[in-house]
Amino acid sequence: MPAKQLVTALLLLTLQAGACSVAHAQRPAQAPTWNQLSPDQQQLLQRHQQEWEGMPESDRKRLANNAARWSNMSPEQRQQARKRYRALKGLSPQQRQALRQRWQGMDPEQRQRLRRRLSNMTPEQREQALSRFLERQGRN
């Protein structure tokens, strides 16, 4: 499968267009303590409260950033994110690994170009691209 299709599918499945820049802008320098999380973040991450302070810093940062992104999404964006998550879960482990490897092989400039391209698509266009990708995956 061409690299461009693999990476496009990865972003369609894992990134919410527009939320990328929000997440990067809000990324804290250090992992927050539980009390530093917003009430929305605490509610979303409630199941992790007991273990929060013992978690690795990278996990706390990732979870806090994801909760912040989720809180900033509209209901429509959340619905699209859920669809992409289900589609990603529907891929075989080999397909997910191929997407991951392709993404990791891109330099920051390539990633940014792809993010810009996706952010210019409507949700419907992103869904159509995802559907086409998944159809091609089924044939391979």
The run of helices and strands is HHHHHHHH
Helix content: over 70%
Enumerate the spans where pLDDT stays under 50 for 5 or more consecutive residues: 1-8, 15-25
> How would a textbook summarize the main sheet?
none
**Outline, from the CA principal axes?**
globular
Structural domains: how many: 2
- Tally of extended strands? 0
* Helix-strand makeup class: mainly alpha
Termini separation (Å)? Answer: 9 Å
Count of separate DSSP helical elements: 8
Strand content: under 5%
Could you tell me the mean pLDDT? 78
Over the alpha carbons, how many angstroms does the gyration radius reach? 16 Å
What report would you give on this structure?
The structure is a single chain. By secondary structure, this protein is an all-alpha fold. It folds into two domains: 1-16 and 76-140, no CATH class; 18-72, no CATH class. Helices cover 71% and strands 0% of the residues. It has eight helices and no strands. The protein has helices spanning 3-14, 19-26, 39-44, 57-72, 75-90, 93-104, 108-119, 123-139. α1 crosses α6 and α2 packs across α4 (57-72). The chain is globular and about 45 Å long.
In a nutshell, what does this entry contain?
The protein is mostly helical and 140 residues long. The chain contains eight helices and no strands. It has two domains: 1-16 and 76-140, no CATH class; 18-72, no CATH class.
What descriptive keywords fit this protein?
140 residues, mainly alpha, 2 domains, 8 helices
Q: How are the SSEs ordered, and which strands pair?
A:
Layout: H1 3-14, H2 19-26, H3 39-44, H4 57-72, H5 75-90, H6 93-104, H7 108-119, H8 123-139
